[in-house]
């Protein structure tokens, strides 16, 4: 078990920050957003639990940032309702919601040091009930209270000893942690993060993924995170919400989203996928390229047309005589820990990730275990994804392999039932 380097237990934060509440914390009900006759969100229904790390994931224009802005109160839905702890808050402005936001641009004050950047929000005299909900008790905090909270936050974000540094002298990751500490020091119940890692380089983004999850677990508050990066979503989240075209496509744990995608869009967006047409012959048997494969799926109609997802890492390369299918290698690229191999099966190109070297133009066989095959219902996304003819810039020049005459019927090809 990984031990997070924070001396303050999460239970303390849960108690002091008042984050022990109903399991369901935020609910969006039939939320629709229309801009200039353009439907950006279409009847979104979403429940967010207390203390949850939830990620809104999808391509540009899918509606994820609009959803975040509705939760934060920056925009009001055209129709539908937003509830916090069962209370409708459609008309509650952002400054009266117990929510803080961290953006991709950190907007730190360059003339203030780290300590003063974090303390800034605590020095503003709070007013009214919203101030009391945020732990201010309707009064200005004393100098000692401000110092205690700032030092507490510096420890949470692993910047103890940096309090008097000039923020302009910090690295991008350190500046981001200052922005997070400034957002958390007022003890919000929800932290909204809108692609906060987008400006960082690859190595720093990976480091900060670990850091953000550590901070969320240490503070015990709800994080709602927006990204188009599936690796970020899978590595940090308790729950992933995959969106496209203003509609939620799937909600689930990272494992569920990756292993059990509901349609071709989700399968393609979350990792690499070979997505081929198939026929569900019966429970536990699916037909691909005229060959029958054992699978674990059931509940489909007999002979129902389906989409079949096979992840590149779930395909084993074997001798032709042992293969369920045989194909021709059209391209191979070394990726460090594995090779990306593009294989032509009857004109449809698959991506296979393997540690075995397979030279271009060689003939290979493949085997797939039943748990490596996932069957999905046909959808509007069927036929749009999964063929690696134009996998990436690396494979732009891949041409169709010269298939042997016996490709369609070969004794070397075998199938499982």
Topology:
Blueprint: H1 10-16, E1 24-35, E2 38-49, E3 53-57, H2 64-72, E4 79-84, E5 87-88, E6 99-103, H3 114-119, H4 128-133, H5 143-156, H6 172-184, E7 190-194, H7 202-219, E8 222-227, H8 230-236, E9 239-244, E10 247-252, H9 254-259, H10 264-269, E11 274-282, E12 285-288, E13 291-294, E14 304-310, E15 315-318, E16 325-334, E17 339-345, E18 348-354, E19 363-368, E20 373-377
Parallel strand pairs: 3-8, 3-9, 6-7, 7-8
Antiparallel strand pairs: 1-2, 1-4, 4-5, 9-10, 11-12, 11-14, 12-13, 14-20, 15-19, 16-17, 16-19, 17-18
Helix pairs in contact: 5-6
Description of the structure:
The protein is 22% helix and 31% strand. It is of the alpha+beta class and 417 residues long. It has 2 domains: 10-256, Rossmann fold (3-Layer(aba) Sandwich); 274-407, Beta Barrel (OB fold (Dihydrolipoamide Acetyltransferase, E2P)), CATH 2.40.50.140. The strands form 4 sheets. It has a 6-stranded mixed sheet with strand order 6-7-8-3-9-10, sandwiched between helices. Strands 13-12-11-14-20 form a 5-stranded antiparallel sheet. The radius of gyration is 26 Å and the shape is globular. The model is unreliable at 1-22, 130-137 and 392-417 (pLDDT under 50).
